[in-house]
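Bug report (template v2)

What were you trying to do?
Predict the complex of my protein with fe (ii) ion.

What happened?
Run completed; filing so the output is reviewed.

Input:
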Amino acid sequence: MTQVSFGQYPPAARTIVNVSDTHLLADNRPLGGRFDTAANLHATLSAVERTGVRPDAIVFTGDLTDLGEPEAYAALRQSVEPVAERLGAPVVWVAGNHDERPALRAGLLDAEPTQDPVTGVHDLGGLRLIALDSTVPGWHHGDIDAAQLEWLRAVLAEPAPLGTILALHHPPLPSHIPFFDILELRHQRELADVVAGSDVRAILAGHLHYSTSGTFAGVPVSVASATCYTMNLQRPAAEVNGMDAGQSFHLVHVYEDTITHAVVPVSAAETADFFTAEWLERMAELSPEGRLEAFSRKR
Ligand SMILES: [Fe+2]
Ligand SMILES: [Fe+2]
């Protein structure tokens, strides 16, 4: 039994796993001299598999590698593809400011190594996932140029049966950390003009290395943290730096009327074992009133 529904909402129609900021380096050199990005990615992918979820897609929202090295893309592919195959899920690669478009295209998409934006439209059983490329070759800040905006406008002109999710690296949100403002996504007003009134239901992003959320043009935005290292937000904004802890990924559940973004910490913490599949089956055998009696009534 995997799909039961005891409440007002039918089970999610689609499920997406959002992983971000893997920042792999060739030969697994430690990132910043201290972070083992390959081991941390492996831990995240193991955690994804432990959920038992069979996602409709695994979306990597950028900074796939730290320096755009071909060897790093090869290592990423080697780590991710067997997991995606076991889960039966397509992988969606989104470019980040640390990536290099030509090497990404050649290494992950088997495409020509050009500087063209890495964009894509994926049909996840009626749910449309659009990958945007917010990177600017040679720079770390974000932007969506006029050509890509026009392309997006044309794609969105035709709505999808279950609506659309956008995925891009630089979130169209403010950050309370000042240095992120320097690298922010530019031309947000122009992007908002394209998104407003369309069938876009959610925006997935990365880049910040911490999990956050907000709204943009009335659409919920969810930022997945990183697998490589995360920002230690326990510090004052001016002193925030990376730490080798707090890694997480997002489980995105797409319901008919809403989309939820659950933050899943990558943790080996000891966990209780009260709730089990057998417990759930016992609940399923009861009437709604019986379930309330068995599980809601205070003893
Ligand atoms: Fe990053
Ligand atoms: Fe980034």
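What did the reviewer find?
The first strand starts at residue 14 and ends at 19. The pocket of fe (ii) ion (ligand 1) is lined by residues 21, 23, 63, 96, 98, 207, 209, 226 (CB under 6 Å).
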